[in-house]
Amino acid sequence: MIDALFSWLLLPLGFALGWAFSRDYPHQGRAITPEKLGGLVTHLVSDNPDETLAALSEAAEMDSSAAEMHLTLGNLFRKRGEVDRALHIHENLLARPDLPPELRNQTRLELAQDYHKAGLMDRAEEISLALAAEGHYAVQSLELVRTIYEQGRDWEQAIAISRRIESAKGESKRAVIAQYYCELSDEAKARKDAPAALELAGKAAKEDPACIRAQLQLGALQEAAGEADDATRHYRLAFEHDPRFLPEVIEPLRRCSEKTGDVDGYLLFLKDAKEMSPSSLPILAEAHLMRQEGLEVVDHLAQGLETRPGRAVLAEFLEVLEHQPGVVAAGLDKPAASLRSAIRKLMETTPRYRCSHCGFSPRQLFWQCPSCKQWATTTPIDDVLKS
Questions:
Q1: Which domain holds residue 314?
Q2: Of 138, 169, 200, the domain-final residue
Q3: pLDDT band (50, 70, 90) for residue 99
Q4: 39 and 142 in a common domain
């Protein structure tokens, strides 16, 4: 599929460049003729990249106006995954003494991207930082450096470069900077440095008050420190910022309510949650509290299935139902158990989250999508069954 797309991109490119060069340089013996350019395209379409590179070298000696074509074809080679050939084109082009300054800087940027694709991060970083310092392609260069720092998990450097991008681009990067602080907080937590983890999560929340991840981190850290009231506040803030994250806070809030003895506050939260979120999880949470009080939950779960028919509620309903005397007497307890087991297994394999940018659907929450690399685009999937 990629090869076919590559070929289709090259055909119009060949015709366009052939027309342009034959028009602009009709009397120069060193000009690129449509026939030679057509041969070049043929080499590419026929998967003869070595002949292509030889033809490009000849074209470079014939006329410096071929530089634009070199850049385009090098870019296509890189996207095709043939980084070594992209490097060959761009390095040869950069070695030309007659290359105009603008095209030279553009070639340097392409070369930095080649090095990045090849895993030569130091070279890519060096070229990109030099370009940015000189004021050439500053935003593109700094963005590439930011990507390099992300891949190297150098979050401090990523924060610094993001602030430079803000200045160069005039566009806020506070949301992604908050994510970097969250990464640093996670690293501090892994080192068992709770004070540092708390401080860094606080910086994330200050950088971006709407950062769900920061509020969840602060809630978890405060809960671990025994500060259930503060933890409750942060968990509630996370939910209020985005009710889709109810699955991430409903159980922590229950734990905190038990520690503080504020069951009424938790019940009030569940009431608010049913108004703000279509999730069936509040039904299950209410059933849990009813069981603690020794109350029957069959009718509550049945009513919940009518209003919020989620898989989890259905499985819970069947589990309760299979132990009912009437169901056992009718011999329906085993079918109910089998159905409940099948639903549980389905839940174990069903994606729980989805990236709004690319559609990637994992079972665990990623704050940076593994597929498209976007930050904070993955959210919980609503568990309510759609008609």
A1: 280-348
A2: 169
A3: confident
A4: yes
